[in-house]
Amino acid sequence: EYVEYRAGAEPEVVRVRVIAAQGEQSCEAEAIITVTAELIANRAGEEMPFKHGLPGYTFKRAPGELWRSRYSVDQSLIYINNAHADFIFASRSDAAKLRYIARLYAKEIVLANFPGSGKEELLERIVELTLYMEENLK
């Protein structure tokens, strides 16, 4: 079934809990929703970068280049520079490598979804996404 949340007029942070039950079986989920004063509008004619779900990622060896990751809209693919010193350092353990790739992924998703946003807003979004990510990588 579908559930609809109607936000109030004022910005707020809301915790929403859903419990679904059928017979003796039940499932429960919880989410925190941030209600903002305004939505970021798409620029006229600008397409959303993620057309078919989230992009995949692959590695591209670019020794000596400073970029860590790049998003190709046309290919819906995030390229990760596996010759970058930070990648090499993070590769010392599987857990560190996973966290590093997830942070790069978060960076690219935020940059693609909030075009034209200021530095402060982008940083706030990255912090928000990485906190959620780190909680769910455990």
Give a description of the structure.
The protein has 138 residues and is α+β, with helices and mostly antiparallel strands. 32% of the residues lie in helices and 26% in strands. It has 3 helices and 5 strands. It has helices at residues 85-90, 94-113, 119-136; strands spanning 12-22, 25-35, 56-60, 69-72, 77-81. A 3-stranded mixed sheet has the order 3-5-4, covered by helices on one side. It has a two-stranded antiparallel ribbon with strand order 1-2. The chain is globular, with a radius of gyration of 19 Å.
List the helices and strands and how they pair.
Elements: E1 12-22, E2 25-35, E3 56-60, E4 69-72, E5 77-81, H1 85-90, H2 94-113, H3 119-136
Parallel strand pairs: 3-5
Antiparallel strand pairs: 1-2, 4-5
Helix pairs in contact: 2-3
